[in-house]
Amino acid sequence: ITFRNLERTYEKGAKVRPLLFIKDDALVFTALTAATTAVSNFICTDGTWEIREVQTDLVEIPASQLSYDTRGNFFEFDTDNLYTGIDYHVVLKLTIRGETIVIQDPEKYAFRVV
Length: 114
What we know:
- The protein is mainly β.
- It has strands at 2-3, 9-10, 15-16, 19-21, 47-53, 59-65, 67-69, 72-74, 77-78, 87-96, 99-104, 110-113.
- The radius of gyration is 16 Å and the shape is globular.
């Protein structure tokens, strides 16, 4: 699971829309004769996201439903709801094939509002 466009810093007042790329572990690669390969994005239809402070792990933006469209999963938040100069990170809870997966990696999914 990776973010396609999560930045390390955001301006105060920015409207942010991180896009998720979820690779399906059930995906089996086959030999192709073309020069390109197509990796499809798995779409999670049951998941939540929240924003927490890195230092205290306090929830700043409470859990909300993860959205999705044909391009994949995403969520939106407004940086006006966050303090400047504090490091935040994203916490994801995804239910995939009946199993709940929690993704919480402050170093990898961290950002700051400036």
